[in-house]
Prior knowledge:
The protein is an alpha+beta fold. The chain has helices spanning 29-41, 82-97, 111-127, 133-143, 185-193, 200-207, 213-233, 244-250; strands spanning 4-9, 13-18, 21-26, 49-53, 56-60, 65-66, 153-155, 164-167, 170-174, 181-183. The chain starts with a strand and ends with a helix.
Amino acid sequence: MDEVEVVVAHSERATLRVGDVFLKVDADQARTDAEVEAMSLAPVPTPEVLWRKPPVLALAALPGTTLGRLGGPSPGPSPGASSAWAAAGAAIRTLHDAPPPVRPGRAGRSTDALAAELDGECEVLVTRGLLPADLVARNRRVAEAALRPWTPAFTHGDLQIAHVFVDGDEVTGIIDWSEAGRGDALYDLATFTLGHENHLDDVLAGYGGDVDLDVIRAWWSLRSLLAVRWLTEHGFDPFAPGCEVDVLKSRM
């Protein structure tokens, strides 16, 4: 009998693996609706939906391995190769070039709303003593470059490297689409390369076109500033080597 593996679990949702089946449990059915819709529209490989019985969504496992994880190296020599990162960049370009959904995604928040959220979060980080004031202030200034007009694209919204599966230099699938929708394409690129700046050139080689590197760096700072408190409160460690706090320190 297959064992039950807890992939991730916190107060908002949980993902379990039983053999070749992933069970996603989410009390917010609108989020699951958005995920299923985005997977049906995305022009890149996605997991097969096996069945759905709220609050559970059952998905088939993807072939291949993930490109890695934040704070750690790639799990094997092939997925860590430059060609695999370039292939991921090409897949991301395919997604961004597709007609965007009507629904705004996580990467589609207005600049005013994002600036207000960022200012509030920075204040909390300092007043609670989670991060030094100078570290927060420096990264808040860097983050300013992300707060600009952008052309809506089909964005994943949570494109961590752990969500991209490869087999050699072929992308076999992308998972976790609950935050997908219309948004800023550079948010996806920044999320994907967060903590793996050394692979940014490989990703952009596959992605193609002109990309504003200052905006990518701004999103690294902005995403990290917004994530530190949430991660700490939900049992994750943004202070682990190579994770969000190290990303913020690298901007100093």
